[in-house]
């Protein structure tokens, strides 16, 4: 029985995934040569690939730049008031909505800048917030 379990575990965790893993490794190595990522410790490499999970939501608020808005506008005050009351998971969902990822880029939060823009619609009640994830712009109707 022990031999069967050992063989089965080896097959499931090693042999059955060997071909897909080799394909992935070959493709990954094309975009990120092994020499480049071997200089990182495992935790550092994970951060580079996945981003940070240490969130400072008040720092995120400080990093925002406004387009056709002022920080003192009531819409902006309301937005941040609601945002800071959200549970942690919803804040991460907002970050994913804004940037396409629920993690902070490896460069760190102090360099993560996004924009909140007034789309300038005539009737803002007929529009909903939307984002441009490439430019990190949240269009927030008044």
TrEMBL record:
InterPro entries, A to Z: E3A/B/C-like, HECT_dom, Hect_E3_ubiquitin_ligase
GO biological process, one term: protein polyubiquitination
A Pfam cross-reference name: HECT
Record has Magnesium as a keyword: no
PANTHER family: HECT-TYPE E3 UBIQUITIN TRANSFERASE, UBIQUITIN-PROTEIN LIGASE E3C
Domain HECT: 1-142
Residues annotated as the enzyme's active site: 134 (glycyl thioester intermediate)
Protein name, as recorded: HECT-type E3 ubiquitin transferase
Enzyme Commission number(s): 2.3.2.26
Keywords: Ligase, Transferase, Ubl conjugation pathway
Top-level enzyme category: transferase
GO MF entries: ligase activity; ubiquitin protein ligase activity
Catalytic reaction(s) noted: S-ubiquitinyl-[E2 ubiquitin-conjugating enzyme]-L-cysteine + [acceptor protein]-L-lysine = [E2 ubiquitin-conjugating enzyme]-L-cysteine + N(6)-ubiquitinyl-[acceptor protein]-L-lysine
């Amino acid at each position: 029985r022990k031999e069967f379990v050992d063989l089965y575990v080896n097959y499931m965790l090693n042999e059955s995934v060997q071909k897909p893993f080799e394909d992935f490794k070959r493709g990954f190595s094309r975009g990120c040569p092994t020499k480049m990522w071997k200089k990182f410790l495992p935790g550092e490499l994970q951060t580079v690939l996945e981003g940070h999970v240490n969130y400072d939501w008040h720092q995120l608020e400080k990093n925002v730049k406004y387009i056709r808005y002022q920080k003192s506008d009531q819409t902006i005050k309301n937005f941040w008031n609601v945002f800071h009351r959200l549970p942690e998971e919803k804040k991460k969902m907002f970050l994913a909505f804004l940037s396409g990822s629920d993690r902070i880029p490896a460069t760190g939060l102090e360099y993560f800048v996004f924009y909140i823009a007034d789309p300038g619609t005539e009737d803002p009640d007929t529009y909903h917030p939307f984002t441009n994830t490439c430019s990190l712009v949240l269009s927030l109707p008044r």
